[in-house]
């Protein structure tokens, strides 16, 4: 993996301030309670997309029942859609036996009623009538599908299911516990399911073209609504927000495939790729109006796919192709299917084939494959809504859906306010920055710039090169413009040693070979002590060269580098590039004023280390390893310089597993060892007496687990380096994946100002959390970060902690705006994402699916020249 630290222990630490020994006795999985609220900042009136809920019958009790549904052959039914139909039919058939109780069903194993059913254990026989086709298509093995004695285009048959209900638990409504809120959410989901909506966790989506936005490749962004009951400090609320998912464009299958693979002709379609995208999608056969589930494609084209057809009871079967069967026997006209594969809509041991042009994709089917960078950018752009528009959509939805009129809601006496929740917030003052030669810079509205200003600590670059993989770029112009821009920022960059263009013959080769050949040219034309390489690639978002190039630079040669794909070579673009370059080669663009004067509250006189932690997962459907990244601060008392440590771990695993790996068991010490050793070396041989941890990507249900597992590893890593008291820890989880939005009460056209904090009203009733919007929202509606303080042995006052978090949003070295989340987490995300490129391109395919699993035990080791740098910026 990344560079291993020295195996020697640290020398005995100097005397440290007294450490609270209660840290040892504290249950590491126990979440702390709120210690008060902040008071600093300018007061501001806000609205939140929470609607107050009152419950008039709090003494009601939900009774939970375990549900089993089996078919006539005793097999358990797992399909949620079918299960819901069965329970609907159960209520219609046996309402009196159920004492008229309305049922709230989650589609799986849990069913709830308000008050008990007549018995603790019940069993019912439920009959469903469903249309079916005695399919006229035949299997590839020569036997008919369905009955051979009688053919009907469409008929009805009855299926009998056995439904068992057994009492499981009581869920008092008064408690407003997690379980009680889950029941209320199930009622909302059931309403949406009854309306034919697509359900995605707590979001629902309707089949309405007005909610669709084409994002290319045969898929569309579908706008829907999110709704969930939340227990807050101000009481029960319904959180409603606009939500977006991605669905396949409904319509002819062939149209989708042409768009999805960007080909003009059906004969250019990659059928293996098509199978992976369409497997288990639902289609409707146009000739009989019946729905099927796709299993794959036939190996032979439609006109070569033969089966025996018996025309009469006493006739000998004749061999007929699927194409002739439909065109001559069924009189169904086909125009282009003869030479194309058929869709297989049967079972694994008994395929059923339908000509492609008779199949149309159903509406509201989620597309779960990875989006291309272009599709992702288009989805983000088309999903944006201004604050005023978002307010209009959700307030209309709360009125139109009439949730409280549901019989189960009525039974609980639930009523929902139609107005957004009003609350007070505060706007924190932006921290002062130091740029140039100790020049003070006060950000305005979350922004600052380097126009006619110098970087705080620019690095001079004398030996560097420019390489080009793009035929459209003139390296002389690129170099001249970058050098001129650098001069205005106080950064001296000499003329590059070499301008290297890729050979024309190499452009058609594999990306790995192209990079190898380019490095052959670089080594031939530049000295071994080259400081930096600027690389011009064809397309920043889609280039397959990026992963191989980064790996070669960072692992094989240890050369700081920057990739660009210049479209507009203006001053703003070049300034942003220079911020990244200066940081990567060891410079500092800006500092917080409080860093330079050592006036950081709770930090200035006690060695304190700040960590940012994140885990990057592969795209949906892939099985590549997840990448855990941890960044740690260096050069105490600075909080703007970091280094990163990364490891692979099992795919989709969220808990970080490699913070500590004992050396005696063949481990490398783990990520914390690397970070602690470098903190010590860069901080005048001082061990951290305090560690502040910022953790991203953890849901509320995982709080106790992450605190116990990861904090325990950190302590062991610290103890493994020598004697001394454990440091004090403050552990904070930052969440961006939530649905709370804040709006200005008196001007809904604008976003809330940067520095907005809310720690009352809509926060958790007991736990220590708050919302902070540190960045300026220019496009769409700002999303605040939800910070949860899980542990605080350091003992921050609410104001001091909020001010520190706000200040950390201004320390991102590659930005001249306050970021939405603290810089350490942002850096951890960048480091994990960059290292994931090494996994993504390991086999040269660029895309890895579950069927093409790569067995990668560890990441390649970063070069010693790079490992301690901010290469990820």
What this model shows, in words?
This protein is of the alpha+beta class and 873 residues long. It folds into 4 domains: 31-48 and 590-843, 2-Layer Sandwich (Nucleotidyltransferase, domain 5), CATH 3.30.420.10; 55-249 and 372-419, no CATH class; 251-361, paz domain (Beta Complex), CATH 2.170.260; 449-584, Rossmann fold, CATH 3.40.50. The chain is 24% helix and 26% strand. It is built from 18 helices and 39 strands. The strands form 8 sheets. Strands 33-32-31-34-35-39-38-37-23-1-36 form an 11-stranded mixed β-sheet, with helices on both faces. Strands 2, 8, 9, 10, 11, 12 and 22 form a 7-stranded antiparallel β-sheet that branches. The protein has a 5-stranded antiparallel β-sheet with strand order 4-5-3-7-6. A hairpin with a 4-residue loop joins strand 4 and strand 5 (110-114). The longest helix has 18 residues, at 823-840. The chain starts with 21 loop residues before the first helix and ends in a 33-residue tail after the last helix.
